[in-house]
Amino acid sequence: MDMKTTFLNGELKEEVYMTQPKGFTSLAGCNEVCKLQRSIYGLKQASRSWNIHFNKTIEKFEFVKCEEEPCVYKKVNGSAIIFLVLYVDDILLIGNDIPTLQGTKIWMIENPFQDMFSL
């Protein structure tokens, strides 16, 4: 699964300003800046803020982060086990129960990450 707007969903904890993008500046406000409300690509904090947001959200679905490898999550439900591997903006789901995998995928698409996935 590919996340299409990964870094646009991170929440900023500090105030960040940037110069106005080309095409948005006016002659009257050419020295003005924009205050960011969300993370954007190229921002130093983007990866970290996205990862924090993803971690909080995926733990609500009972995934547990692996201590040895922080980009790997595990969910055990009876005999079904699912591993979720996060690499920047790509997700790999691996498991031993197809209905559980499909349910996880549907949950991710229809709920907290609905605007971020492209399959």
What would you note in describing this structure?
The protein has 119 residues and is α+β, with helices and mostly antiparallel strands. Helix content is 23%, strand content 27%. The protein has helices spanning 46-59, 98-110, and strands at 2-3, 17-19, 33-35, 64-65, 72-77, 80-87, 90-95, 117-118. It is elongated.
Offer a few descriptive terms.
119 residues; alpha+beta; 4-stranded antiparallel beta sheet; 2 helices; 23% helix; 27% strand
Derived from helix and strand composition plus strand pairing, the structural class reads alpha+beta
Order of helices and strands: EEEHEEEEHE
Proportion of helical residues: 10-25%
Radius of gyration: 18 Å
Strand content: 25-35%
**SS element count, helices:** 2
Distance between the termini: 5 Å
- Average of per-residue pLDDT values: 77
| Main sheet overview | 4 strands, antiparallel
Please count the beta strands (DSSP E, at least 2 residues each): 8
Please state the overall shape, judged from the principal axes of the Cα atoms.
elongated
Largest sheet: spatial strand order: 4-5-6-7
Low-confidence stretches are none
Please provide a brief summary of the model.
With 119 residues, this protein is of the alpha+beta class.
Write the layout of secondary structure elements.
Layout (H helix, E strand, L loop, with lengths): L1 E2 L13 E3 L13 E3 L10 H14 L4 E2 L6 E6 L2 E8 L2 E6 L2 H13 L6 E2 L1
Antiparallel strand pairs: 1-8, 2-3, 4-5, 5-6, 6-7
